[in-house]
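Hey forum,

I'm writing up a methods section and want to include a predicted complex as supplementary material. The small molecule is coenzyme A. I've pasted the protein sequence and the SMILES. Can someone with a working setup run it? I'll credit the forum in the acknowledgements.
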Amino acid sequence: MTDDLVIRPAIEDDAAGLFDLRERVAAEGVWIGSEAPLDPARERGLFRSLVDSEDKALFIALIGDDIVGGLGIAFGLPGVTEFGMQIDRAWRHRGIGSALMTEAIAWSTERGAHKLELQVWPHNGPAIGLYEKFGFVREGCLRRHYRRRSGELWDAVVMGLVLDTASPGSELNGPRYV
Ligand SMILES: CC(C)(COP(=O)(O)OP(=O)(O)OC[C@H]1O[C@@H](n2cnc3c(N)ncnc32)[C@H](O)[C@@H]1OP(=O)(O)O)[C@@H](O)C(=O)NCCC(=O)NCCS
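Reply by user p_vandermeer:
Happy to help. Structure tokens for the complex are below, copy them as they are.
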């Protein structure tokens, strides 16, 4: 872990730095859903919706003045938060993703979420490793679900972290099939 790491909610002034980070990670081509070049108007709308809303949040990781990581989170289904994250290539595997993940779990817990959910490319070993370290489990696979700009259809792994293990489950649950 880097000593001078700061994690905080994003503010308006962070928009350009976060766009640049997302553009760099998207340009790597294999990790996140968004593909480079990013659409500035769409990114702007996404940034605004995350920063301005009570039931969404955007956290950034800073080293000095540099934005080296970001995590956006929002409620999808009631009680279920969904998130996406990225760390600058030069700063990976130093605990910054874990610091953002800790923030996302705390944010979800404070708002009464019963579960966190995400989708990840099956080839993204580092991300799957991070999620499993925090207790997420693989819940299924979406086959040939996402059309990439190349025309390829990519699978996605669905992973979840249940926060509420006390409420009763459905009595109608059948045998597990995944
Ligand atoms: C996935 C990602 C967010 C992880 O962030 P990070 O800061 O590198 O993660 P951390 O340093 O906190 O590592 C936490 C755990 O993740 C796993 N991990 C991280 N990097 C890894 C690597 N290169 N290989 C294997 N496992 C890795 C390990 O389990 C690690 O625990 P460890 O330190 O005990 O080995 C980062 O690699 C990233 O931004 N990748 C590109 C964008 C992306 O894939 N986003 C997620 C899309 S679903």
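Some notes you might quote in the supplement: Residues 25, 31-32, 85-87, 92-98, 120, 124-127, 129-130, 133 surround coenzyme A (CB under 6 Å). The chain has a mean pLDDT of 96.
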